[in-house]
Amino acid sequence: MYFPSWLSQLYRGLSRPIRRTTQPIWGSLYRSLLQSSQRRIPEFSSFVVRTNTCGELRSSHLGQEVTLCGWIQYRRQNTFLVLRDFDGLVQVIIPQDESAASVKKILCEAPVESVVQVSGTVISRPAGQENPKTEALRLQYRYLDLRSFQMQYNLRLRSQMVMKMREYLCNLHGFVDIETPTLFKRTPGGAKEFLVPSREPGKFYSLPQSPQQFKQLLMVGGLDRYFQVARCYRDEGSRPDRQPEFTQIDIEMSFVDQTGIQSLIEGLLQYSWPNDKDPVVVPFPTMTFAEVLATYGTDKPDTRFGMKIIDISDVFRNTEIGFLQDALSKPHGTVKAICIPEGAKYLKRKDIESIRNFAADHFNQCSLLGKLRLECADLLETRGVVLRDPTLFSFLWVVDFPLFLPKEENPRELESAHHPFTAPHPSDIHLLYTEPKKARSQHYDLVLNGNEIGGGSIRIHNAELQRYILATLLKEDVKMLSHLLQALDYGAPPHGGIALGLDRLICLVTGSPSIRDVIAFPKSFRGHDLMSNTPDSVPPEELKPYHIRVSKPTDSKAERAH
Amino acid sequence: MYFPSWLSQLYRGLSRPIRRTTQPIWGSLYRSLLQSSQRRIPEFSSFVVRTNTCGELRSSHLGQEVTLCGWIQYRRQNTFLVLRDFDGLVQVIIPQDESAASVKKILCEAPVESVVQVSGTVISRPAGQENPKTEALRLQYRYLDLRSFQMQYNLRLRSQMVMKMREYLCNLHGFVDIETPTLFKRTPGGAKEFLVPSREPGKFYSLPQSPQQFKQLLMVGGLDRYFQVARCYRDEGSRPDRQPEFTQIDIEMSFVDQTGIQSLIEGLLQYSWPNDKDPVVVPFPTMTFAEVLATYGTDKPDTRFGMKIIDISDVFRNTEIGFLQDALSKPHGTVKAICIPEGAKYLKRKDIESIRNFAADHFNQCSLLGKLRLECADLLETRGVVLRDPTLFSFLWVVDFPLFLPKEENPRELESAHHPFTAPHPSDIHLLYTEPKKARSQHYDLVLNGNEIGGGSIRIHNAELQRYILATLLKEDVKMLSHLLQALDYGAPPHGGIALGLDRLICLVTGSPSIRDVIAFPKSFRGHDLMSNTPDSVPPEELKPYHIRVSKPTDSKAERAH
Questions:
Q1: Burial of residue B30, with CB atoms counted within 10 A of its CB: 0-12 exposed, 13-18 middle, 19 or more buried
Q2: A43 in contact with B at a CB cutoff of 8 Å?
């Protein structure tokens, strides 16, 4: 018996298929609501023949004999069926051996939605199975998953929250909702951009990662205050919890400074925040990039809990402990500590061991202390301490990022820390001509509970400065951006903006484990739509108008051999 | 001297570039507003040295000597410059012959925004010129064009109207705003769909023409009332006044019938209609497909004026006029007439001649009478009769379309008149099994002033019926739609919906000559972004991850030769 534990959480409150259902299960929806607010699972299997509910099975049940009761949701090729009860789904392997022929006959012939009782041993999904992801079934039958209480709640909350944002921007603050193209030009080095072949041989559109250029051009065009709930595209192959298409609340304003954008966003979130959550308190605290790194060891700290990093170098100035002496004798050498409150009470010997190992594994990575802080928080929480209250929303502005970073492949060259249109910090403009590496930017990030949920900047509106940064400092080919530079030449107002990642924000607000739970039809890890089998092959004659041919990997190997 | 007459209309009220401008031109914005409301062009060239304004030149000026005054907007390769005044733009060819060397020197060296006076002969743009479209310059400098009064008005009106639509749907009627994917599966025979290569060899996404499948799946998923301001894609090469990406107000409802959708849309348009226009009167009149064809000779009639088609066969039953006798003796032979009110007064001999020629040119086309009606209206309007009041908005529902049409390439086979998910008319279901060609559908179109601005239908929610229509009647490969059929199997509520073409609607509301005037960054006729030079070539190494190669047209010729 497989158990898609992912499924179990969100299939609560499955609606009633109209065919052959023996009794409605709406009642369970309210029970599961109650259940989640009580945070304690009642004994749903007392007094009855079943030992467990379908949604209850976890890895701790592996190897146990269990009895489940429910409806046949689905059957595939007479090899397995999916059993559903009010609480979740479980995959049941249909026995194939001769001795179980009668059981097999019953299970294979019973109509879908028949009620059955199944006894068997809980196993984990066999390795190399065709559909290795427990989430795959949810995505394949997304139209059924959408009936669940949780998906209905998530999508309706998303719609309402976006509607409130629009009211705030459009009706209260005079923003203009403007749609920008998604068939656009490749950006220089835009290796993460999907391509769209055109009917002109060798010419391609590209699906942009954001409307950045367009929103700046709108400011040049005098639109003054722009926003868009913008579909964006990024081809990152199979990075977990990323989607090839995603949505951002995209904003740009003329004649604004950093504090203006910050106040706008604080008001936006306060106004649009769901009524069933604690209200958002504004203004949000602000820390500089240097401060967050020193205090939390990351630029997106979870500020719901303390355990800050403390510099205790002074305590050890005259120490005789060898490795501390060593560390302090190096340039910029420091000794830092994290205090774990009541750590001695909660952490066991093996926890300390795992912390030690974790530190050894990440030795010499500057983000070690930030990771260690989260690792310790994980450990404390497994021991029952509530550090990160899921009902708490802790916002933080991070400002004064560096404008440039050394290029990874060639550290003597510079690349933009964010993008090349970011304005330098007003106090650091002179550094551009002397020590550009030290220049700070007017970029700002919005962080919520340890997640970056937005970022933006005041932009460069002076064409000369933009040309200097692109051509002289970044050594970019300015030809591809000549339209933008020319636009700045024609008189651009001072302007700035921000983009909020809507999927991530809604995911945090609803407390969902994945952004796939706040998107109606998400792609799987590997960018597939499992419901419709997308992407799919295309007959060669449909490729012809686009003047492209498929070159199989073997072809390109052959090419390399040439 | 070239004259982009398109430009002249919308460059009125150009804002002031900040460099080297001798005086602000804001004043002209209000003058041009005044001008448009008076509908009579004042004598802007009286008392001064110029003979014409830049925006005034039309084909009637060809060959004339004119003198223009204005600012140098732009200069290209010392071959031409663009001259701007308050009223519009004109291209000026810089003389290249020796005798005009001093003029050339002045024109090539004067800084942009210098004020000049130019005399010359008006010519039309030479054939084979690099930028043959007069609109090209507006699109190339879109960020300047956006500063014009008209573009600001159009984009702000669009934003406000869409916001009101959202309020009506979301806040007043409980619709859920749900984003559906744009990276989806190719639809069978979807030759107008852009392809997006994926990182899996030979596998492609496709950009859908509408969220049709998704919105039906949302109904199966119990979302009940869905809407989306949806970006859609259609690759139609270079059809005029179409855009490769466009926007529709996409709506779907469960447990609804045709009249329910109609009332919803009437309320939606009434609620969102701009305050500066006459209010929308509801309900809209409804005509059947058969009626509109008989009365107006088209399924999208302009009902702002009469001149209906009248069957006068009875008058001629006993005629002795040969060609009428001939016509009436044929099966379904009729004699039809259009009465042109005061035609004798307004139409001249050459008008009658042109009507006769038009009829001869379109002889034997069943849409002839509809076209003739519009042709007569055009003629009357050039003679000063106001038939189609631009401030009047005349809506019409057209219903009872046929469900199927004979396939063009093989008239014995059927294809869907709209799409295969359209439900048959309840009275005609029996015809599906006997005479499917005669079955009417539950499709409806919304027509405004002779333009189709929306269409929708009640959908098939019964899987058996859907399978029968797809497989038996349409001979489609149902495998590509198996997810949709399976979803219907799992219990779909009766449902229906509609999509309004937002670009076209806003175009009509604002009285714009082209949908490009209501889109911030439209593509040109040929699908190009002239500002950024899109689509563009891509280095071969960026094609590799997508396993495609460009096959130049010569390659495919070579292939065919094999």
A1: exposed
A2: no
